[in-house]
Amino acid sequence: MNTIDKAKLATHYDVVIVGGGQAGLCVSHYLKQANIHHVVLEKEAELTHAWRSKRWDNFTLVTPNWQCLLPDYPYAGAEPDGFMKKNEIVEYLDGFIEKLNPPAILGINVTHVAKVGKQQFVIETDQGTTLAKHLVVAAGGYHTPIYPKLSSSLPENVMVIHSEQYFNPEQIPEGNVLVVGSGQSGAQIAEDLHLAGKKVYLSTGDAPRCARFYRGKDVVKWLFEMGYYETTVKDHRYNEEVRNSTNHYVTGRDGGRDIDLRKFALEGMRLFGRFKDYKDGKLIFSPDLAKNLDRADETYNRINASIDNYLLQNNIQTDASASVYEAVWQPESEVTEIDLVAENIRSIIWCIGFRPDYSCFDLDIFDKKGYPQHNRGVTIDPDVTFIGLPWLHTWGSGRFLDVAKDAEFIATHITQQIKYFNKAMNSISPT
After folding, report:
1. In what order do the strands lie in the sheet with 282-285?
2. Could you tell me which CATH class the domain 12-143+356-428 is placed in?
3. What residue spans define the domains of the chain?
4. Best exposed site among 8, 91, 251, 310 by fewest CB in 10 Å?
5. Please, what's the b/e burial string for 37-60 (b: 16 or more CB within 10 A of its CB; e: otherwise)?
């Protein structure tokens, strides 16, 4: 656990950063360089809490270590093309925190934020109230775990947890386990349980997948060289909607490999379509398993084809030839109902995401869905910025790759706003 000098909440700051994850800390780094008076408010007892307490034991990065580019603190280990494990990620973050020594207050909960004038925010906490000229929301967008509404109550002897509560197979009771959701977390948790010998039932969704390695190189490396990570929201074919997209499932475990749900099915995992309901002892699924698997494989092959085209256009030679993934398993039929007791399902893990909760921010900057309206993190109120959200600006945003770039941009914006405000105040002050 990181240690931070205990500090009391001051009466005012130039900038208050809400959230002590890597995104908020990166903003703090650049504000310190600019000599901007600021504080990081973190509700948990430690910085970068989610990496420590909301990841399963066998968690690894999905992107290679060389993409870990926190400001003035790039990955410097012996395996740049490897994938850090949970404990290694924590060690990397602790090194950054120690070097940064951010002005942070831990265990403080922000309860209400309102703007009462130009560049004047009133920030109420459970440890008092402070004022700020600028607000940075670095609390991420994964706040409230999503649980589906069910027609019937699940039996009391069935353990029900969310993905953020899963740590290892040992915590799962005897019997079979249903994992709902096949995004990155769902697919990797299903694999973790499967490799441990648990009988896994997996309810799939529309998550895409990609190869880990192709044509002799990590697919991430190819996509980086092709400029994909520099794609901005405005340049993307889905525009703003891309912010709601599901990440491709793949893994960095054991040096990195594909996640092939069809292969898991051959090995005994039971696959189903999208989860719909639990009613009268029955788990009910949509008849879309084949479509979900086919769509994921289409994305897999499309990404590989784009790499083939890139190599051809740039006359790049590799030892590995082009290939197309062919399905190793097909569902014989679409099973849409199973009996919970008959299948001996004794635990369910919901891996269907989170909802953002910005309810404490009493600010007119959110759309009808409660999402901040912003351009590259700068909201429609230029005194409020966000950082750490997926696709904040590019595909690399929200990752270790581009969080420093986003933070530098936001810190520069804040510095300019404060300078303009101070200059304006000085020009109208009596001599």
Report:
1. 275-279, 282-285, 337-339
2. alpha beta
3. 12-143+356-428, 146-213+246-350
4. 8
5. ebbbbbbbebbbbebbeebbebbb
57-66, 200-209, 377-386, 388-397: least confidently modelled range: 388-397
Query: Can you tell me the distance from the alpha carbon of 348 to that of 351, in angstroms, rounded to the nearest whole number?
Result: 10
Distance CA 35, CA 12 (A): 15
| 285: β partners | 275
Residue 335, token pair as written in the block: 């099973």
Question: Candidates 3.30.413.10, 1.10.238.10, 3.50.50.60, 3.60.21.10; correct CATH number of 146-213+246-350?
Answer: 3.50.50.60
Beta strands at 176-180 and 345-350: parallel, antiparallel or unpaired: parallel
Which tokens go with 338?
A: 């199973």
The answer to whether 5 and 404 have CB atoms below 8 angstroms apart is no
Q: Which residues of 78-117 are buried (b: 16+ CB within 10 A; e: fewer)?
A: eeeebbbbbebbbebbbebbeebebbbbbebebeebebee
Query: Are 12-143+356-428 and 146-213+246-350 the same fold in CATH?
Result: yes
In b/e form, how buried is each residue of 164-184, taking b as 16+ CB within 10 angstroms?
A: bebbebeebeeebbbbbbbbb
Helix ranges restricted to H, 131-285:
184-195, 219-225, 261-266
203 and 242 Cβ atoms separated by less than 8 Å: no
pLDDT tens-digit series, residues 113-144: 999 988 899 999 999 999 999 999 999 877 78
Give pLDDT tens digits for 73-84. Answer: 999 999 999 999
Distance of CA 231 to the CA centre of its chain: 18
* pLDDT tens-place string over residues 208-224: 999 999 999 999 999 99
Q: Measured between alpha carbons, how far is 225 from 233 in angstroms, rounded to an integer?
A: 19
Q: What are phi and psi of 220, to 5 degrees?
A: -60, -40
Residue type present at position 217: K
Amino acid at 315: N
Which residues does residue 339 pair with via DSSP β-bridges, in sequence order?
282
